[in-house]
Amino acid sequence: MSTVDVRLETRERRTAPVAAVAWALWNALQLLFTLVFTAGGIVIALALRVLARGPRLPLRMAARVWAPGLIGGAGARFAVEGADAIDWSKPRMLVANHQSVIDVCALFRAVPVPLRFVLKAEMARVPFVGRYARAMGMVFIERDSRRAGAKLLREAVALLHDGATLCVFPEGTRSRDGRVGPFKGGAFQTAIDAGVEVLPVAIVGAGAVLPASGFFRVRPGPLVVRFGAPLQTAGADRATLARDAREAVIALLERAP
């Protein structure tokens, strides 16, 4: 090893701890911004919900103010592909892969109509956030309860019949390794019963920008939402629909930019 190589290696060893501390401080500031910005947004959204007598306006605020603010705060380079080919006047159910909590921001930002989510029941018990989600008409699911599952089905079908756009993460949890897990069939029964299309959506890069593992470890990078071709539900069974939707999401993830 040359003298120059030794000096470079020594310099890298010295600067690595400094860089780690700098990133930790920067992530702490980003976390503080996220909490304050989200809390302020919730207060305004709840007030708008009362004044506008409905969730449409605050949901659009989430898409145009809250989501872009958090995506920009994370340093993500955001892009949307395939949205122009979708008829957004029709109710439908979106199904997306799930790697990060920033997925919600990405979908809010990418979908040009008010968007609701199917959320874990635990979210309803989170102070402030749960109140917001209930006020916006989100649907909550208790994964281990058949009775709750039937209630979810009725609520989701009613929303779709009313013209809503509903988003589900059919893996049921965030992926730690980037691979798309099996899609659970229950969500697809909702689309079948409501008679609406299923729209596969791939979120690319979210796991790198804000990984599921670790505590709020944000890194700048590309964040892309890709919309696929709608899947028809007439005459379909939920197992086949779940398989076809998963394959479509994987194909979108693997597609070259």
Which features would summarize this protein structure in a list?
257 residues; alpha/beta; Glycerol-3-phosphate (1)-acyltransferase; seven-stranded mixed β-sheet; 7 strands; 15% strand
Description of the molecule:
With about 260 residues, the protein is α/β, with parallel strands linked by helices. The chain has a single domain, classed as Glycerol-3-phosphate (1)-acyltransferase. About 50% of the residues lie in helices and about 15% in strands. The chain is built from eight helices and seven strands; from the N terminus they run H-H-E-E-H-E-H-E-H-E-H-E-H-E-H. It has helices at about 5-50, 55-75, 100-110, 130-135, 145-160, 185-195, 205-210, 240-255, and strands at about 75-80, 90-95, 115-120, 140, 165-170, 195-205, 220-225. Strands 1-7-6-2-5-3-4 form a seven-stranded mixed β-sheet, with helices on both faces. Helix 4 (about 130-135) links the parallel strand 3 (about 115-120) and strand 4. Helix 1 runs antiparallel to helix 2, helix 5 (about 145-160) packs parallel to helix 6 and helix 6 (about 185-195) crosses helix 8 (about 240-255). The protein is globular and about 60 Å long.
